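Task 17 of the worksheet. Students: predict the tertiary structure of the chain below and write it out as structure tokens. Keep your answer in the requested format; marks are given for formatting as well as content.
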Amino acid sequence: MSVFETLESEVRSYSRGWPVVFDRAVGAHLYDEMGKSYVDFFAGAGALNYGHNNPVLKQAVLDYIMRDGVTHALDMQTVAKRDFLESFRDLVLTPRELDYKVMFPGPAGANAVEAALKLARKITGRESVVNFTNAFHGMTLGALSVTGNSMKRGGAGIPLVHATPMPYDNYLDGQVPDFLWLERLLADSGSGLNEPAAVIVETVQGEGGINAARVEWLRGLAELCQRHGILLIVDDVQMGCGRTGPFFSFEVAGIRPDIVCLSKSIGGFGLPLALTLIRPELDVWEPGEHNGTFRGINPAFIAATEALRAYWADDGLEKGTLAKGEQVERVLVGIAERYPAADLRAKGRGLARGLRFPDGATAGAVCRAAFERGLLMETSGPDGEVAKVMPPLTITDDELDAGLAILTDAVATTLDRTE
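Model answer:
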């Protein structure tokens, strides 16, 4: 592995926790170059909801490439893009009675967020954006300005401005009414808060520690935005495409955001694709006002279309995800109850789950022990105190049981060492 250490930048991170060279991947398993199998509870940080090398999606991409289908097309009109747009409209938007224009801002989630922030400021003529504690929205400067993690913000090298953090749901342990502080600032002309262009929120904070907002809180936020003429942006980059059960994570609250950011698993096969969904009356862009070279990666359109047709023509995947999420929750709650002195807590929604430990060192030790036993997991939260369980949505019950058994053993081993 010397070439990675001598030639690749020190910025690499996941590879440090999983010090092997991976070679193959199928479904919910990765294999290193020695042939060892690992159950995947990481799923490309949410980019592989349909698993590794999903055979249905793979065949569609291979067929497209073999017939010399267009690969790169910027924002030109192609058959692949048309098929995707029609499928997205017919299988996702129309059944949910959602009316959005689809913008292709670039290949990654940060591109979708940057476009959303720019558009909100263009529409309203305001600069300030309200974000939330422990939020994560990407690594570019605009996205970092609305991100909470101090280490990631520090990498910007300049002040990150025009954003105002507010407490996320239960950040203050329920000691004050929801939005008391934000409502007071908005109503008081002496508060010093610039009138916000938008509020940006994750319904479940993945990198922030698997913090799931209550539906009542999300509804209250949507109502607050409507009362004050503030645009509501939902960042569904990691939690969209079925990660919490429904296609959009905000469906459970019955809200209709003004702008929605999608990426990661919208590309189906792990290929780069991002969407910024905009209420039609908000689509005030001038042609070319926001552009980029990689807005039309057509193999991603092909995989995305096939994923929609295979998994979103009915509610089978959604029901399966919710059932598997309950299965994970039962195991995590059981682990927490088994070690009452350890102060563990199960968190999350759907198949975005986590087990919170008292500190990052313990959570990290659990993930290392899991890796040694053949399970890939990462930590999240401000101190890395949450061990995340985010497998592909297509994982089988047996594979999920096997991974959870490894996790249970890793927790037991780690806590026995520390007692």
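Marker's comment: Residues 185 and 192 are 8 Å apart (CA to CA). The radius of gyration is 21 Å.
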